[in-house]
């Protein structure tokens, strides 16, 4: 099946710094990618829909100025957590659609100290 | 708006037995898709099975089958001949066709397979 990669898989950063997470579709083009956040023992919560060549669509309650999304090409979307705080520590997962299936990246575990 | 309900926070099953994980949904979309994903402790989301709302037959994929009852708005996952490696979180999700392509997830069920 289609493959989606994420980089880095784990990142630890200090409070107040910014962190960029990359999501790539490796063998297909994805005009739409999604960013999810998952806290421990909870479900995946959609943060935003990343659209190639246009602005991302954010879910209610997600700060667009804090979680910057750039979908610069058909195979790459980036999520930048700006001015990270400990409460931003979470598991971030991206996904991309091919046909009717939605393929997920392996996730990025962010820890903000 | 779409909503997925998984009422079983945790389930236990003996190895080689079958287990059913419940999922009910609510949507106003006339056409939609239902998905099940497995998430082991590593965190990766593994696609298991898909059911389209207009599919006449219940979906099957190896040991996984989806018991789709449209009138009851339920899409239960049945795992036959459970294996120790099936221990994981299982998420039911849905997506409406014709509008946003985003997936809405249930809260998940933690399945533990006992030897």
Structure summarized in a few sentences:
The complex is a heterodimer of chains A (113) and B (115). Chain A has 113 residues and is mostly beta strands. Chain A is built from no helices and 11 strands.
Task: Give an overview of the whole structure.
The complex is a heterodimer of chains A (113) and B (115). Chain A is mostly beta strands and 113 residues long. Chain A contains no helices and 11 strands. Chain A has strands spanning 4-7, 10-13, 19-25, 32-38, 44-51, 57-58, 67-73, 76-81, 90-98, 101-104, 108-112. Chain A is globular and about 40 Å long. The mean pLDDT of chain A is 93. Chain B is an all-beta fold and 115 residues long. Chain B has strands at residues 3-5, 10-14, 19-21, 24-26, 32-39, 46-52, 60-61, 64-69, 74-79, 88-96, 104-105, 109-114. In chain B, the strands form 3 sheets. In chain B, strands 2, 5, 6, 10, 11 and 12 form a 6-stranded mixed β-sheet that branches. Chain B has a 4-stranded antiparallel β-sheet with strand order 3-9-8-7, with no helix packed on it. Chain B is globular. The chains are: A mainly beta (113), B mainly beta (115). The A-B interface holds A 1, 32, 34, 38, 42-46, 49, 91, 93, 95, 97, 100-104, 106-107, 109 and B 33, 35, 37, 42-45, 47, 50, 52, 91, 95, 100-108.
What structural class do you assign from the helix and strand content of chain A?
mainly beta
Catalogue the unreliable spans of chain B: none
Helices and strands of chain B, in order, run as: EEEEEEEEEEEE
For the largest beta-sheet of chain B, the strand count, sense and barrel status come to:
6 strands, mixed
Q: How far do the termini of chain A sit from each other? A: 37 Å
Quaternary status of these chains? Answer: heterodimer
Quote the average pLDDT of chain A. Answer: 93
Which term fits the overall shape of chain A? globular
Give the proportion of residues in helices of chain B.
under 10%
Strand portion of chain A: over 45%
The pLDDT mean of chain B sits at: 94
